[in-house]
Design brief:
Chain A: Residues 6-129 form the NIF system FeS cluster assembly NifU N-terminal domain. The complex is a heterodimer of chains A (154) and B (418). With 154 residues, chain A is of the alpha+beta class. Chain A contains seven helices and three strands. Chain B has 14 helices and 18 strands. Classes of the chains: A alpha+beta (154), B alpha/beta (418).
């Protein structure tokens, strides 16, 4: 069934057992909403120099938005900012591909579990769900680190 | 096939709606349960649109050529049809807009720019309800912000009804306008118009009714309602998009100032000032949605031929059946009235902790079209502590078999995320 391409096992796993969920100490906090459907996320980032010490979050929303936040936590915590930005940019590229990108080994190496979202990119109404936490992270990082980070992530 | 008393001959009716034969996702026939968002259109309406463009297209109210006269007669004929449909005392009380949102914004702006005794200002109050569609919230918030008038709200009860227990404190001598929905677009609740209007009349407040979810589904009689303004939209009642209606009492339309200025709405224009055409033209600046009005006229003819009371009875039977079948689904909670009494055929629900987005996605794969989200009525979701709902909404062509398909689909959703 076509639905299985969206609801990959790995996505449903993250949805049912989210990683790093809950709000912890952070340098900046943002609240993002998906106004068309009511998905919400509150997200905090904690930096240790240029290293992401923590990304904590709380939210309500569909399986795609919640699983995406869990995958983000897995992927970004412990990374250097520049590497995290590369992951974010790659994820954005995949999600905006309208199902045209078949992730190759190089992409899979960067995105790990997040390649499972490739199927979601075929559903325009759901792309926003998948990107919600990633946009929140980008925003929170800009706030935590100031304009320098904003310019680099833009 | 399930037979229920009061059902229309849907087999015949469905033949009028070409879209209902649409097949989606590898051979699944569409089950269209998103009628509160927009209805499908019968061939009679599509033919009227085509015939207008192919035979009579011209601008209205200007020009002496035959096409201009035909177009004007068709456009004004649509106004006659709508006036009769809502039992308006005069055709001049029917203003064409582009949708119900524009109709409601028009009322808010008339009152914002009006002189006494209608003027809304810092000393006065506006009353709406927590149950409103955003289109009957935001225009009043804007008016409140711009004039300093206080915006007051009726709350809603746990079972999805308006809480009128404090009506005398909410509607007071300071109230200038009370605006509320006749039928909730998210919960289907039919509101007690009489009680609210009686209190509004006691204090001399105007009453505006959002009938967007009522006009398609029940006989609408603006004289019986006794409101001052009634707004609705064409596309939810088998008509095209881009055409809405504002009905207003004649003396109000005479007294109140225009909002949009332009061609068509004037009497004379000079460089120093202008005078205005009488209503309804005073409120219809610019080239109106002519084809869309003609299409709405055809929709009104179509619905009238079937009979609004029969349509209401059909939907009541479907609602009763749907409420019963949905309550059999494990973990399903209806948001709003849980019986078919005083409610329309729009049913919102949550299914366990499965997010409505996920519910809607799986149903779509089965060919079932429902709406998910906050339905432009976010205060209702906040009131019940939920982020969103899944909403199934029915119309004159909906069948018990489609209710069954929805219920089976929801079982499938539960298994998928179980």
């Amino acid at each position: 069934m076509k639905l299985d391409s969206m609801y990959q096992e790995v996505i449903l796993d993250h949805y049912k057992h989210p990683h790093g969920r809950g709000l912890r100490d952070g340098d900046a906090e943002v609240h993002h909403v998906n106004p068309t459907c009511g998905d919400e996320i509150t997200l905090r980032v904690k930096y240790d120099g240029a290293t992401i010490a923590d990304v904590s979050y709380e939210g309500q929303g569909c399986s795609i938005s919640q699983a995406s936040a869990s995958v983000l936590n897995d992927l970004l915590v412990g990374k250097e900012l520049t590497e995290a930005q590369k992951i974010q940019a790659t994820f954005l590229e995949l999600m905006q591909s309208k199902g045209q990108i078949e992730p190759d080994d190089a992409m899979e190496e960067v995105l790990e579990d997040a390649v499972a979202f490739a199927g979601v990119s075929k559903y325009p109404a759901r792309v926003k769900c998948a990107l919600l936490s990633w946009m929140a992270w980008k925003d929170a990082t800009a706030q935590a680190l100031g304009d320098g980070a904003e310019r680099k992530t833009a | 096939m399930t037979q229920l008393p009061g059902l229309l001959d849907t087999e015949a009716i469905r033949k009028d709606f070409p879209l209902l034969d649409r097949v989606v996702h590898d051979g699944k026939k569409i089950v269209y349960l998103d009628n509160a968002a927009t209805s499908q259109k019968p061939r009679q309406v599509l033919d009227a649109l085509n015939a207008y463009y192919e035979q009579s297209n011209a601008n209205v109210h200007r020009g002496v050529h035959v096409l201009a006269e035909e177009a004007t007669a068709l456009y004004e004929g649509a106004r006659d049809k709508v006036a009769a449909f809502i039992n308006a005392p005069s055709r001049d009380e029917v203003i064409f807009t582009k949708n119900a949102s524009e109709s409601l914004n028009l009322v808010a702006n008339m009152l914002g720019w009006a002189d006494e005794p209608y003027r809304v200002d810092a000393e006065t109050e506006i009353v709406i309800t927590e149950m409103e569609h955003h289109s009957n919230i935001v225009p009043w918030q804007l008016l409140s912000q711009r004039t300093g008038a206080k915006l007051k709200w009726f709350g809603i009860t746990d079972d999805g009804r308006l809480d009128l227990s404090n009506i005398d404190e909410i509607i007071t001598e300071k109230t200038k306008i009370v605006s509320f929905t006749l039928v909730s677009n998210i919960m289907g609740t039919i509101n007690p118009v009489d009680t609210i209007i009686r209190r509004a009349q006691e204090v001399g407040a105007l009453v505006c009714i959002d009938a967007s979810q009522a006009a398609p589904h029940m006989a609408l009689d603006v004289q019986a309602l006794q409101a001052d303004f009634v707004a609705f939209t064409g596309h939810k009642m088998a008509g095209p998009t881009g055409i809405g209606v504002l009905w207003g009492r004649q003396e109000l339309l005479e007294d109140l100032p225009p909002f949009l200025g332009g061609g068509e709405m004037i009497e004379t224009v000079s460089m120093s000032s202008s005078t205005y055409a009488p209503a309804p033209h005073k409120f219809e600046a610019g080239t109106p949605p002519i084809a869309q009005a003609v299409g709405l006229g055809a929709a009104v003819d179509y619905l009238t031929a079937i009979g609004m009371d029969k349509i209401a009875a059909h939907e009541h039977a479907i609602t009763e059946y749907a409420v019963k079948r949905l309550s059999e689904v494990e973990g399903l909670r209806i948001i709003g009235p849980t019986t078919a009494e005083d409610r329309g055929a729009t049913i919102s629900f949550v299914l366990g902790d499965i997010h409505p987005h996920d519910v809607g996605q799986v149903l779509d794969e089965l060919g079932i079209a429902v709406r998910v989200g906050h339905h432009c009525a976010r205060p209702v979701c906040l009131r019940y502590g939920i982020p969103a709902t899944t909403r199934a909404s029915f119309y004159l062509y909906s069948t018990p078999a489609e209710v069954d398909a929805l219920v089976e689909g929801l079982e499938h959703v539960r298994n998928f995320f179980g």
